[in-house]
Amino acid sequence: xxxxxxxxxxxxxxxxxxxxxxxxxxxxxxxxxxxxxxxxxxxxxxxxxxxxxxxxxxxxxxxxxxxxxxxxxxxxxxxxxxxxxxxxxxxxxxxxxxxxxxxxxxxxxxxxxxxxxxxxxxxxxxxxxxxxxxxxxxxxxxxxxxxxxxxxxxxxxxxxxxxxxxxxxxxxxxxxxxxxxxxxxxxxxxxxxxxxxxxxxxxxxxxxxxxxxxxxxxxxxxxxxxxxxxxxxxxxxxxxxxxxxxxxxxxxxxxxxxxxxxxxxxxxxxxxxxxxxxxxxxxxxxxxxxxxxxxxxxxxxxxxxxxxxxxxxxxxxxxxxxxxxxxxxxxxxxxxxxxxxxxxxxxxxxxxxxxxxxxxxxxxxxxxxxxxxxxxxxxxxxxxxxxxxxxx
Length: 392
Fold this sequence. Notes:
With 392 residues, the chain is largely without helices or strands. The chain has helices spanning 30-37, 43-53, 57-66, 73-81, 86-94, 97-107, and strands spanning 116-117, 136-137. Helix 1 (30-37) runs antiparallel to helix 2, helix 2 runs parallel beside helix 4 (73-81) and helix 4 packs across helix 6. The chain starts with 29 loop residues before the first helix and ends in a 255-residue tail after the last strand.
């Protein structure tokens, strides 16, 4: 007896009923079939569907990315491991920052993806704003002109990467590896560079405003003419760093060694420099107006022609300091120690010199008009008129 023409044959593939199909059963084919099986209540069925999704290009990738939010952990794990090879990772990056970040937020918890290898990748001029490259290997990558603003680059390996002209403003580079990286023309304003090793880098004439350099290794770094206003140098290694002519307004140098450093001509107006050690530092012609230098060690430092208008030098150490032609108008030098310092032609008009120590200091042609000298000690100092003060 012939079979009715409108009924399926025994060998036809058909869409199943309401019951979930068996894992090995044949259902509606193509990407539509994959989508249908992803609606299954059985996690193993959804995993099998994702395995097939890999064969359907961008449409399949979208389904795998969506599966990263699946309720079942084993499905999410499968979706993570779907992007294991270099080509798969590149395909994921092509889907955009949001897709990559969703995958990275899950994969970073897995030991297998502790470090994602993207070494040598070409992301030149790509928009990667807010991307999560946490603990990725981007060594040797071409990132010229890329927008990496607000990117998560925590412990990222950027060794030898070319970041010329890249935008890294407000990016988190805490603990990142930057050995041999090219940073010419890079925008690092607001970036977090704490715990990075930047020794020997040339940041001359670079804008580095509001950068966090906490515990960074900045030995022998050239900051000449750089704009470092409002940046933090807390517990940073600054040995042999060069800050000449740099803008350092409102910076914080807490617990950072500053001995013998070159700050000549730099702008430190309003900076908080309380209790720091500038022993033998070169601060000639520096702008330290209104700076907070309470109990700061400036002994043997070169402050010739520096601007210290209204600076707070309460209890500061200024023994054997070069202060020739320094401007200290309105400055607070209460209880400061200026013994044996050279203050020739210094302007101390209106300064607070209460109980300051000037023993054996040179005040030749200094201006003390309007200064408060209550309790000041000038024993054996050379006074403005050239005479030696002999009263104890």
